[in-house]
Design brief:
Distance between the termini: 62 Å
Strand content: 5-15%
Order of helices and strands: HEEHH
Largest sheet: 2 strands, antiparallel
Structural class: mainly alpha
Radius of gyration: 20 Å
Helix content: 40-55%
């Protein structure tokens, strides 16, 4: 009986493409969503290194890159505002690490 599984020695591993990976598309879609939100917040120029990527295992990653302290403060302010106004209430909130420490 013939085995139709390609032999690794016969396969051209140089033909692998990130476009064949679900991780790549997940990272790209998340990066696009984040980019759109940053544009709406007027922060599109504050994340010059924002990009989709894959690690060596093919897991999708979103690279935010380095940002200025002012950008980090602005982002923290936006997140605090979103949390205070109940944005994202459809997902179950997890306790912060400070809250978990207080329970012990």
């Amino acid at each position: 009986m013939r085995d139709d599984t390609p032999d690794l020695h016969d396969a051209d591993v140089a033909r692998w493409s990130p476009l064949d990976s679900d991780g790549w598309y997940a990272a790209r879609n998340a990066t696009t969503a984040l980019r759109d939100a940053l544009v709406r917040a007027g922060m599109d120029r504050d994340f010059p290194y924002l990009r989709a990527d894959l690690n060596a295992f093919g897991h999708g990653l979103v690279e935010l890159g380095r940002v200025s302290p002012e950008t980090a403060e602005h982002l923290a302010e936006l997140l605090r505002f979103a949390l205070a106004t109940g944005a994202g209430e459809s997902t179950e909130a997890k306790p912060s690490t400070d809250e978990c420490k207080g329970r012990n």
